[in-house]
Write a structure and sequence with these properties.
Layout lengths: L1 E7 L4 H7 L4 E7 L16 E5 L7 H12 L2 E5 L5 H6 L4 E3 L6 H35 L1 E6 L5 E3 L1 H7 L22 H12 L5 E8 L5 E12 L5 E10 L1 H29 L4 H15 L3 E7 L8 E9 L15 E2 L5 H8 L4 E4 L5 H8 L5 E9 L2 E10 L8 H29 L4 H41 L5 H31 L8 E4 H9 L2 H7 L2 E7 L6 E4 L1 H17 L4 E13 L2 E10 L33 H11 L4 E5 L5 E11 L20 E5 L3 H13 L3 E5 L2 H11 L5 E5 L7 H9 L12 E5 L6 H7 L4 E4 L4 H12 L13 E2 L12 E2 L1 H7 L4 H28 L2 H17 L3 H15 L3 H28 L1
Parallel strand pairs: 1-2, 1-3, 3-4, 4-5, 18-20, 24-25, 24-26, 26-27, 27-28
Antiparallel strand pairs: 6-7, 6-10, 8-9, 9-10, 11-12, 11-16, 12-13, 14-15, 15-16, 17-19, 19-23, 20-21, 21-23, 22-23, 29-30
Helix pairs in contact: 7-8, 7-11, 7-12, 7-13, 11-12, 12-13, 12-18, 13-17, 14-16, 16-17, 19-20, 24-25, 24-27, 25-26, 26-27
Length: about 950
């Protein structure tokens, strides 16, 4: 603490020195102490000590000026009186000459020093609160017993979007509230301020330009003994962005379901026109627009290129345009000549009608359209026409998800049209066997192209949905928001299952489905296939069990993946149609020959059963036991068909015995080879690179996939550079290649595909690119030969979409092998200094990797570390509680939360162990988990200590 001493000329310096000993000070002698006040302009003092001469009364004026102009604390030593007057001016302390003993002065200065430290701490905390409110978009308020309200800066910042001003009256907020939510707001105020209820609810505020923001509100109330309001306080958080994300994902999910339904209908019946009307109807409702339209070009051979409106869907209250002369055989020229080239290049046209050129606006303004989006439709490589959305109610800014969804719809329609055309050509070519063969081949290629496009076009956005949902879950959500995200993930998973079923049945019909027999540990593979059904059964209060006869050999030869697919279908159906009781799987030996064995699998349930008239057709394609309009369970009806085909390929038979209301028993047989070596080989741990912190180039054109892959790879400690196509990837490798360790390459990208970019790298002379750099393919293609095609192009490995982060991590480890990372040679790390206890995991905190991950933002890094320490205490408490009551589900959830927060600080060894114990919880190995918890908790607590110590340093 620094002191400025203003003393009279007759005051002895020695006495001053005794008073301020131990502190940094500057001493000035003056005839009147008020003349020294201006020295504060150049002197950074925390306190001014005034010691005037006898008769110098200017010290009162000096106190007033110092407090009012500089806000510095003042201590006075004088016999001149006026103590009360001085204290009223804000004097910190007052001593007479007799009281000004060194010990009294020291006590006063220490008290002042403590006060200054508290004031600085309060200023710092106030700054942090304001910064957090601004960054996280939340605010606070507090009401006293007189109903006067104080608003925080963050609260004012949020509310002033919709309010002109806020007063001390709580009802001044009411002017901001959206008209539809005013009643909710009033009822909430009544419950809070009249009945004293704490509340947690949402309402909307409406801005000056009709903008709407969603607010999540928490309130608490304190009442006195008489039931009167003593104090109320609350917090409001702007959750508009989360609402927009939820809306976007739900809308995308709805559109994808429409397109999947159309694809499934088309595969069953090639006449695409039969289902186009209902598809446009469902598409328009899912996208929440006023019109969906489909224009087609004039037939080949016409003298002029014209277009006609053939199909449309319009919302209620808007006129139909189909059949009107101005929309039949209309020329594209000259008004829309500038649009023709982009459409031929498969580009979209979108925007507000008012922003179009004058000649382009008339056509749309005549029908009242305010915003439009047009996507070209190609049948094969021929421009067929275009598909579009239009909005009449308002000017609409088209979201990337809407653009991507409409592009996907146009691609699917184009593939369906092309396939339909090829089918027509096939029928007309029956006169000649040679002609028929050629057209059949073309039609088959068209169908294969349709399947490949459907695989890629649907799996890619599903990958984005799953990835974004996983990413949002890690950002910290309310229970309701987490429930919404779980619904999104389940819906996307269902869509992926549908796509996989359609692809499998198409492979089977084309005779391209093949088994890949290898030696495998039968019991381990069976456990892997069925272990996820245990938790699923627990949720529904259903008993689930499985058993394997002792005479089943340990190691068999066969396709364990396809066996798992059959069991997944049968067990999934059993759980789906069983509301109470039991689901059971048994495996036994029915026949054994030299080197071969036939196993019998039975899946028994106590569910609803199947009616007798459905038993004969249950294994047919697109057939379901419950096909009514009000059916409770959804599905493609392909699972049992695929299972029957796979069982037949394994040399066995499948059947069912059922009685409606009393459950079902599905049974099948399958032949396997018996491996000569029945000892299970010990699985070697995979090679790991010398560091997990790699510099990775991610080449991916889909923005959602780029965002979530960057998020999760960064969580694993990697540094990510992104490119949107193959050309950008090559440019980055040319300029930054020495710092890139590995490339994640999407296969299908604009400008230059991933395969073309890989070939350019591998075939280079080594001057521009590192020819040996590991490249991993990321692709939504799932047809036969796709993997081989990518590996033949020079890629080191292959990960299919939706990307599983564990599979991707394994692929990265395999691809790196012993290769030395280029980027960092010796990142600094801090290791926990606990005792070397047996079983305790070595805990390291790689601070350099964390600093790199947060791009040097030390304030944000400190907040993350502080948040980790706070959350860690809660996780340990939850884990101890779950252990005490031996609740496996609760224990698994607690371990999962520890896995999440440990990954945030890159403690990957701890993450690995926690994830392993979490799996054991769901496999029923509760005693083993409890035995291993001691070392895990010790390691986790050591990690908390290290993180806490590093956070203090920041």
């Amino acid at each position: 603490m620094k002191l400025l001493v203003l003393a009279g000329k007759n005051v002895e310096s020695a006495s001053i020195v005794l008073m301020v000993q131990g502190y940094e000070y500057s001493l000035v002698h003056l005839a009147s102490v008020s003349r020294g006040v201006r020295r504060l302009d150049k002197h950074d003092a925390d306190c001014v000590l005034l010691v005037p001469d006898e008769g110098d009364t200017t010290w009162l004026r000096a106190v007033q000026r110092i407090r009012n102009e500089y806000g510095v604390h003042v201590i006075v030593v004088t016999n001149g009186g006026h103590e009360d007057k001085a204290r009223a001016l804000g004097l910190f302390d007052f001593f007479s000459q007799a009281q000004a003993l060194p010990e009294n002065m020291t006590r006063s200065l220490r008290h002042l020093e403590s006060r200054l430290m508290l004031e600085r701490q309060l200023d710092k905390e106030r700054f942090m609160h304001e910064w957090m409110e601004e960054t996280d978009r939340f605010g606070r308020w507090e009401m006293d017993s007189q109903s006067r309200v104080k608003w925080s800066k963050g609260f004012r910042r949020i509310m002033e979007r919709g309010c002109h001003s806020l007063t001390e009256d709580f009802d001044s907020i009411r002017a901001c509230v959206h008209p539809e939510d005013v009643e909710v707001f009033d009822r909430a105020n009544e419950a809070t301020f009249e009945q004293g209820w704490p509340l947690d609810f949402e309402y909307r505020i409406q801005g000056k330009n009709n903008t709407v923001n969603y607010l999540h509100v928490n309130r608490e109330v304190e009442l006195d003994d008489a039931g009167n309001l003593r104090r109320a306080y609350g917090m409001v958080r702007d959750v508009s962005l989360q609402k927009e994300l939820e809306e976007m994902l739900f809308r995308r999910d709805a559109i994808l379901q429409v397109l999947t339904s159309f694809a499934g209908r088309f595969l069953r019946k090639a006449d695409w026109e039969e289902g186009i009307g209902s598809a446009l109807d469902e598409l328009g409702k899912a996208a929440d627009i006023t019109r969906v339209f489909l224009f087609s070009k004039s037939e080949e051979g016409s003298s002029e290129e014209t277009l006609s409106l053939n199909y449309e869907w319009v919302a209620d209250g808007f006129p139909s345009l189909v059949g009107k002369p101005e929309f039949i055989n209309q020329s594209f020229s000259p008004q829309y000549d500038s649009w023709r080239i982009p459409l031929l290049r498969r580009k979209i046209i979108c925007g507000h009608v008012k922003d179009f050129r004058k000649g382009e606006r008339g056509f749309f303004e005549a029908t009242g359209v305010k915003s439009v989006m047009i996507v070209p439709v190609f049948a094969g490589n021929t421009w067929w026409g275009f598909l579009g959305f239009s909005e009449h109610r308002m000017e609409r800014d088209w979201l990337p998800v809407e653009i991507e969804s409409l592009t996907l719809a146009a691609n699917l329609f184009g593939s369906a049209i092309h396939y339909g055309r090829m089918g027509e050509k096939l029928v007309s070519a029956n006169r000649s066997a040679e002609e028929a063969s050629a057209v059949a081949l073309e039609a088959n290629l068209a169908k294969s192209m349709f399947l490949a496009n459907m695989s890629h076009e649907i799996r890619t956005p599903i990958s984005g949905i799953l990835g974004m949902a996983e990413m949002v879950v890690t950002t910290g959500l309310t229970d309701e928001q987490r429930e919404h995200m779980d619904m999104i993930r389940d819906a996307a998973g269902s869509l992926l299952h549908i796509v996989n079923d359609i692809l499998d049945i198409s492979k089977i019909e084309a005779g391209k489905m093949e088994l890949k027999p290898v030696d495998f540990d039968f019991r381990a593979a069976l456990e892997t296939s069925v272990r996820s059904f245990g938790p699923q059964a627990d949720v529904s209060n259903i008993a689930f069990r499985y058993s394997v006869s002792k005479d089943v050999p340990t190691v068999l030869n066969g396709d364990s993946d396809r066996l798992g697919q059959i069991l997944w279908n049968l067990l999934g159906n059993a759980l789906k149609f069983t509301e109470r009781g039991l689901v059971e799987l048994t495996v036994s030996v029915t026949r054994q020959e030299s080197g071969r064995i036939c196993l019998l699998f039975k899946v028994r349930d106590t569910g609803t059963g199947i009616s007798e008239d459905k038993l004969e057709s249950i294994f047919d394609s697109f057939t379901q036991a419950d096909s009514s309009l009000r059916k409770k369970h959804q599905g493609t009806g392909l699972g049992l068909t695929i299972s029957r085909q796979l069982v037949n390929m394994m040399g066995g038979e499948i059947g069912v015995e059922s009685e409606q209301g009393f459950g079902s028993t599905f049974h099948f047989t399958a032949w396997f080879g018996v491996a000569k070596e029945q000892e299970v080989e010990e699985v070697r741990a995979p090679l790991t690179p010398k560091t997990l912190h790699l510099n990775i180039l991610l080449a991916e054109d889909n923005p959602l996939n780029r965002k979530y892959l960057t998020h999760f790879l960064s969580m694993f400690g990697h540094t990510i550079t992104t490119a949107e196509n193959g050309i950008e990837a090559l440019n980055i490798l040319e300029t930054q290649g020495k710092s890139i360790d590995l490339v994640l390459m999407d296969v299908q990208m604009p400008e230059m595909s991933g395969i073309e970019a890989t070939q350019a790298i591998r075939e280079s002379d080594g001057k521009l690119y590192d020819r040996s750099i590991p490249i991993i393919a990321l692709t939504a293609y799932a047809m036969k030969g796709d993997k081989e095609r990518m590996l033949d192009s020079g890629m080191n490995d292959y990960v299919s979409k939706p990307v599983d982060m564990h599979e991707l991590s394994d692929a990265i480890i395999r691809s790196m092998g012993d290769r030395c990372p280029q980027g960092r040679a010796g990142a600094s790390s801090v290791q926990a200094s606990g005792k070397n206890v047996e079983g305790v995991i070595s805990v390291k905190l790689d601070m350099q990797a964390l600093i790199d991950r947060f791009e040097g933002n030390m304030a944000l890094l400190k907040d993350i570390l502080d948040l980790f320490v706070v959350e860690a205490e809660e996780k340990i408490v939850n884990l101890d509680k779950a252990t005490e009551i031996r609740d496996a589900k609760m224990m698994g959830a607690s371990l999962h939360s520890i896995t999440n927060i440990a990954s945030h600080v890159l403690a990957m060894e701890l993450v690995k162990k926690s994830r392993e114990l979490e799996k054991w919880c769901y496999l029923g190995r509760l005693d083993s988990v409890i035995e291993e918890l001691g070392p895990l908790k010790s390691s986790f607590k050591e990690l908390v200590k290290v993180v806490s110590a590093e956070a203090v340093k920041l």
